[in-house]
Amino acid sequence: MVQDADFVWMDGEVVPWAAATIHVASEAMLRGASIFEGERAYWSAEHDELYLFRHEEHLQRLRQSARVMRMSIPFTDAEITAGCVELIRRHGWRDSVHLRPVVYFGEGDAHAFRPQDIRTGVFILAFQRSSKPSLFSGIRSCVSTWRRNPDVAAPSRVKSAANYHNARLAQVEASLNGFGTPVMLNLAGKVSESPGSCFMMVRKGTVVTPPVTADILESITRETLITLLRDEMGVPVLERDIDRSELYVCDEALFCGSGQEVQPIVSIDHYEIGAGTPGPITAALQKLYFEVARGLHERYRHWLTPVYRQAAMVEQ
Ligand SMILES: Cc1ncc(COP(=O)(O)O)c(C=O)c1O
Q1: Percentage of the chain lying above the pLDDT 70 cut
Q2: Which keywords does this chain's UniProt record carry (predicted)?
């Protein structure tokens, strides 16, 4: 992460970047005991406003992760939202922003993971983040030799920092081999997701994506795209297992996530996907996604939280 932020929201207040520290003896440091969210805010020039995209759903997922980890979050959703808004307002950003609320276990007895036995803290990082150039050129992907965490050991449904050891192994391997984001299979040998995004492909006009039981994170972008495909584009969507060999014969493929957005895949393991350029359904979906995120579709305004309007209300 490139540090372009001056402040961090930490345990209820905005502090200078350099003052946002956690002790080396914390469980977050020693055992990766933290959960987090990654969400974006998009600038709308038309509305002169920055919109958090699907912020409520991100908070719901943070609570879902906390529940499985038996963590209790010592702030309400309203307090975390106010923290996100205040952090952005202090920076005055009017461009695409990435937000990362994190809940972590602090110092306590080793393995004292019961909420009452260990200090639990919250911080929020924010930084400006523009889209990757591969959004338009597409990604050359591969199938990782690393398998996705199985639910019976380290559930991918939980957005925990520790899961990203598995993700990092796969991403680094792919990068060293000259590929972009890899596809990960689960232990059953079916397509799961990528280290930081979900997977969709097009076969004969139908979009196919692995089900939430395929060891994936329950992606908010995946759910957004399924809604847009079905309700706005009239494209059928199937949630079912995907075999490895289907990757090599599909017509289009993409990765989706709050950070990754809608990334076309142009080849997998050197097999060209379609014409080897972003496919037509993918390109139309990507365009619609950004329009919705920037508040251009009235029907989906309830997915947006206006940052500067909320900040102005607090100041009054
Ligand atoms: C492992 C993994 N899968 C999927 C996703 C996509 O999830 P979302 O669309 O909610 O950002 C992410 C990104 O957060 C991720 O890290």
Answers
A1: 97
A2: Amino-acid biosynthesis, Aminotransferase, Branched-chain amino acid biosynthesis, Pyridoxal phosphate, Transferase
Q: How far is the CA of 197 from the centre of ligand 1 (A)?
A: 4
CB 254 within 8 A of CB 222: no
Q: Does domain 7-128 have CATH number 3.30.1330.10?
A: no
Chain segment 233-275, per-residue pLDDT in tens: 999 999 999 999 999 999 999 999 999 999 999 999 999 999 9
CATH 3.20.20.120, applies to 134-296: no
Average pLDDT value for residue range 94-119: 86
Segment 131-143, tens digit of pLDDT: 888 999 999 999 9
Cα Rg of the chain, angstroms: 20
Atom of ligand 1 nearest to the CA of 61: 10
The rounded distance, in Å, linking the Cα atoms of 308 and 97 is 13
CA pair distance 15, 173, nearest whole angstrom: 37
Pocket flag, ligand 1, residue 219 (CB < 6 Å): yes
pLDDT reading at 94 higher than 90: yes
How far, in Å, is the centroid of ligand 1 from the Cα of 193?
A: 9
Domains of the chain, residue spans: 7-128, 134-296
Measured from the Cα of 159, ligand 1's closest atom is 16
